[in-house]
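Two entries, shown back to back:
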Amino acid sequence: MRRDEPDSEIIPARAHWSRFVGKGETLRIVDTHGQQAVDFLCYNAADPEERYHHPNTIKKAGRILLTKGDVLYSDRARPLFTITADSFGGHDTIGGCCSQPSNLMLYGVSNTGCRENFLAALKPYGLGWRDIVPNVNWFMTVPVGAAGEAAIAKGASKPGDHVDLRAEMDVLAVISNCPQVLNPCNNFNPTAIEVIVLPAAS
């Protein structure tokens, strides 16, 4: 899994992506155009039954918006990724992913969503519907009011904003470059992003 040189790839608007990231390597996600939500899941590469767990992550961070220094924990309370750099600050942990059923429920339109992207990305690994858990949304915010009210905010990231994730074990990382146009998370205009896998420090 280990690499000696950075490996960069453009993920088109509305597309999905998956990759094994070796322990110590860094996955950099770049919002090249700005205002683009990036839905994210991750799994123990050796045992995908161990996967990202948002309650453990939130409880350890002590907040629902993640930034530099926070850790993505698994359902076995082990670190999967550590956020080592973050030019955006305050990434969502509670909004989950959009989907055809939820788009129909919320907006009356069954547009394809991130769940369908996740299903396509997970299929080559023998994973499916039961393996999709509440995910991280990079560059997206769901403000929560004093009475508990919450709503997805308009995308606020700037072109070039990025987040760096250092793998704490060999990890399967999965991205849906969110296709949503029915709420403002992408400012109603999905765009491409860049992902870069950086070698482990020697």
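entry 2 starts here
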Amino acid sequence: MSDKSDFTPMFGLGSPNDAYAQYFIGNSYLKPLTSAAECGVGLANVTFEPGCRNNWHVHHASKGGGQILICTDGRGWYQEWGKEPRALGSGDVVVIPAGVKHWHGAARDSWFSHIAFEAPGEDCTNEWLEPVSDEDYPA
């Protein structure tokens, strides 16, 4: 399932995630589902090609904040710093509190999509960190 013509995410593929490509190993695609400016909540479908993952990163906030992932298609991974990777599939939900260093992405042999929800909070920022090494990426 390495050809994107073989993979049709529930919410559509979206456009190449060029604005954030520097923070990913491999190609990802972004399809905004709502606008935070219009409704106060930003939701986006993020699709990862097989083997694609984002860098380690932290969602900071002085109050509230964090991120929620709602997995919709394919198979992927989530890992918090200092913990073992967690396999993800359709229907899984990951709640990531503010301040937790983590990464997420596709399995080596599967496309993967999730809805990303940036939880409302105060003084929210994202800090992008180092790439996930091949040694740390699950086999």
